[in-house]
Write a structure and sequence with these properties.
This is GlsB/YeaQ/YmgE family stress response membrane protein. Belongs to the UPF0410 family. It is found in: Cell membrane. The chain is an all-alpha fold and 89 residues long. The protein has one domain. α1 crosses α2 and α1 packs across α3. The longest helix is centred in the middle third of the chain and has 22 residues. The radius of gyration is 14 Å and the shape is elongated. It starts with a helix and ends in a 7-residue tail after the last helix.
Length: 89
C-alpha cells in the first residue's frame, strides 16, 4: 500500500518536472500529468535497468534523469494528442 502511495507522489513530482521540461505550451490536466509521471517512473526504471546494472549505492541521479526524460516525452505526446484539432464530419 505504501508503494502505491509513493508511486503516486513520485509520479506527480516526476510528471511536474517533465511537464516543465516538455517543449511548447503544455496544457494538460493534472491527472494526466500524474499519469505521465507514473509512466515515466515505470518506463524509466525499466530502461535504466535494461542498459545499466541495478546496484548503485546511495541516491541514483541517473535513474531519476531517465525517469524525468521519459516523463517529458510522455507529457509532450499527451499534450499533442489532447490538443490535436478534431475534424467534424
Amino acid at each position: 500500500m505504501i508503494d502505491l502511495l509513493l508511486m503516486i507522489i513520485g509520479g506527480a513530482i516526476i510528471g511536474w518536472v517533465g511537464k516543465k521540461l516538455a517543449r511548447g505550451d503544455v496544457r494538460i490536466p493534472t491527472w494526466l500529468t500524474v499519469a505521465c509521471g507514473i509512466g515515466g517512473v515505470l518506463i524509466g526504471n525499466f530502461l535504466y535497468t535494461l542498459f545499466f546494472k541495478d546496484n548503485t549505492p546511495g541516491f541514483d541521479w541517473w535513474r531519476h534523469t531517465w525517469q524525468v526524460v521519459v516523463a517529458a516525452v510522455l507529457v509532450t505526446f499527451a499534450a499533442g494528442y489532447r490538443t490535436k484539432p478534431r475534424v467534424r464530419v
